[in-house]
Amino acid sequence: MATVLIPKGDKAREAIDALKGYVYQIYQSALAWIELGTEEFLFLEVAEDYAVVAADVLNAVQVKETAHSVTINSDDIIASIDSFVDLRLRNPELQVRLRHLTTSRIGKEKSKEHRVGDTPTLETWRKLAKTGDLQPLRNILGASKLSQQTKDHIRELDNTDFRELFLKRIHFDCGALESKYLIPQLKTKLSTLLAERGGVYSQVDGCLSNIVMTLLSKATQKEDRFVDKSALEELLVKATQIPVNKAQFEAQNQLIATLFASSAPQASGLLSKRLVEPSPINEVPLPRAIANRTNHINAIVSSVTEYGVSWVFGAAGVGKTIGAKIAARQIGGSWASINFRGLNEEQVAAILVDVINRLTEQSISRFAHFTGHFSRLPSECLVDYGRETK
């Protein structure tokens, strides 16, 4: 095999870090899409990296996957604060909030002039959003690298608005999960969504790929750069269902019907040996010696009289069949016995279908409720085929 020569280039021109940032942004956007509410929209590259809009609220998110720590003087932080003010001025009808989501940790400013006391300014920001003297932070922001538009905006706010409409509206979410941890989280959430729709875990990777490709495509469009819950549902359905056109579907059904038809005579022959006709209980005499089971017999009679059915459970040989026959005689009517002992679910189903067909001919339609309980039928049951049960 020939050796592949790896070309050498200027590492300073490599865009690996930038590409990692874009990939991380898409993964975070995918997570936001999965968690989107039914009346929310996820906008991509419209207001920050992505933004969730619901009613009159715009939640913008700036996403960064960086290794270094961040301070109030970091370019990313400055850009996010400037962006918040710009969004607020452009969208006065919306309640704008901004979340700076980064894998970086909060660092402490080197100069005392850039922090309040010995606490990193971004941590002080969180505390002052609740309470405290705002003037020191105002001074820091006034001397920072913020744009003139942002500084003018801050200057126009009184302390109440500065806290409520500025500090509380910007959140620095530092120390977020890296891509290698974000992917398993995405897969876990997708696995749950797919399972709820009848899917399996092996479909997760394909579904995640479709989500990523959809977001990439939307983010590079000139218009309509948004997705919603229904768009996600379409991808989930696509992952869990196989589309078949009507002609193929009918052809497959015909093939299945043909296969069943060819095997039916053999199956019917086997079952017919077990069931030619339901056995009337009056044709089989009861034993001469019968244990006194008055309470049990009364319970069976009461259940059949009130609900139309009675389930009798017990170990082999304890007298279930005898008790059922005695109860049937007390109730009155023409009862027959069907033996299911040793049969599997398919065989039981076939026998019941045959019985239902026989009873239907005698206008006994209420027996059809038995068909929903194939897996729970006792080894033998009694059927009143002389009158409709109440």
Overall description:
The chain has two domains: 15-237, no CATH class; 265-384, no CATH class. The radius of gyration is 37 Å and the shape is elongated. Helix 2 (75-90) links the parallel strand 3 (57-64) and strand 4 (95-102). The relative contact order is 0.08. It has 13 helices and nine strands. The N and C termini lie far apart (82 Å). Strands 5-4-3-2-1-6 form a six-stranded mixed sheet. A three-stranded antiparallel sheet has the order 7-8-9, with helices on one face. With 390 residues, it is of the alpha+beta class.
Brief overview, please?
With 390 residues, this protein is of the alpha+beta class. It has helices spanning 16-34, 75-90, 121-128, 135-142, 148-156, 159-167, 179-196, 204-219, 229-240, 246-274, 294-307, 320-331, 345-361; strands spanning 41-44, 50-54, 57-64, 95-102, 170-174, 226-228, 279-280, 335-339, 380-384.
